[in-house]
Write a structure and sequence with these properties.
Length: 299
């Protein structure tokens, strides 16, 4: 089973990077206060990365910090790094998507995660102006070539961070905002363990190896649960078993799991948010509340 999970993708190994501790904010701090402070924190982290010989990371962080439009609710440049970035006007948005990434997502590979968030926000904005996307790299993701990707340890740690974040997000977004949690690959294991309050309307699992739960009734959320997988996604070849805490059990796209299906077209494992794709259209419809399970398929 381990070979089935780790073979298709190579790990993005990242040496530990020392950097200043993240900025501490009061819960009442407004998004724009956080954005400004985190841009400064990114410059300091870039300097630390430069001193450590990590010039590639330093250059990427400086570029983001120099963009006066960059909106980071949270940033931590230490180690693999953490980042929580907003696309759109969060404070007026009443449709908010929170993206939770899978394995091998760090500050060094952040550009590909960020590109998906940008594509989703552009797709949402084309149809509905009061929307925002939050790219939540709020946990230490496991390496694809590692034993941690086969167990729920990292997911449990992440869920303990994600749940409170979603509560705080409700107070930052527009009144009565509808929040959708979009969970890719190992991120679906995280979301399955995250307690979501009434502000989260939908949880979407895609490219999922399983969640560790046998059905939606076992998840820690009362939200609507959706699942989809593209026809070109190698994750379909991963055995859906769970033994002695290893593996994640029932396939979320199996009807026995009980999730609402959505059409993912021919998406590959990293292609669900590709501009112009059927999967992106489906995800946008779920976020906007215009999707229906009737007639949807996994193909």
């Amino acid at each position: 089973m381990a070979a089935s999970v780790v073979f298709p993708v190579s790990a993005a190994a990242s040496a530990e990077v020392q950097a200043p501790a993240p900025v501490a904010f009061a819960d009442s701090a407004a998004p724009r206060e956080r954005y400004a402070a985190n841009r400064t924190a990114m410059v300091r982290a870039a300097d630390a990365a430069e001193e450590a010989g990590r010039t590639g990371r330093a250059d990427r962080l400086r570029a983001l910090a120099a963009d006066g439009r960059a909106q980071f609710l949270g940033f931590d440049g230490r180690g693999g790094g953490r980042a929580v970035e907003v696309f759109g006007e969060l404070e007026s948005a009443d449709r908010v998507a929170v993206l939770v990434p899978g394995s091998d997502t760090t500050l060094d590979t952040y550009a590909r995660f960020r590109a998906g968030a940008v594509a989703l926000q552009e797709r949402l904005r084309a149809e509905y102006g009061r929307s925002a996307v939050v790219a939540w790299l709020g946990y230490d993701t496991p390496g694809t070539v590692s034993t941690t990707v086969l167990t729920a340890g990292r997911a449990d740690e992440a869920a303990a961070e994600l749940g409170p974040f979603l509560e705080r997000l409700r107070s930052m977004a527009g009144p009565d905002a509808r929040i959708s949690l979009l969970c890719h690959s190992y991120g679906s294991v995280v979301c399955a363990r995250t307690a979501t309050g009434p502000g989260v309307s939908d949880v979407v699992l895609y490219g999922s190896p399983g969640t560790g739960a046998g059905s939606v009734r076992e998840l820690a959320s009362g939200a609507r649960v959706w699942a989809g997988r593209g026809s070109a996604d190698w994750i379909a070849r991963v055995p859906h078993v769970r033994l002695a805490g290893v593996g994640f059990g029932t396939d979320p796209v199996d009807s026995a799991f009980g999730a609402r299906p959505f059409a993912a077209g021919d998406a590959g494992h990293s292609g669900y948010l590709a501009p112009g794709s059927r999967s992106l259209d489906s995800l946008a419809a779920i976020v906007l509340g215009t999707a229906g399970a009737a007639g949807a398929s996994h193909g």
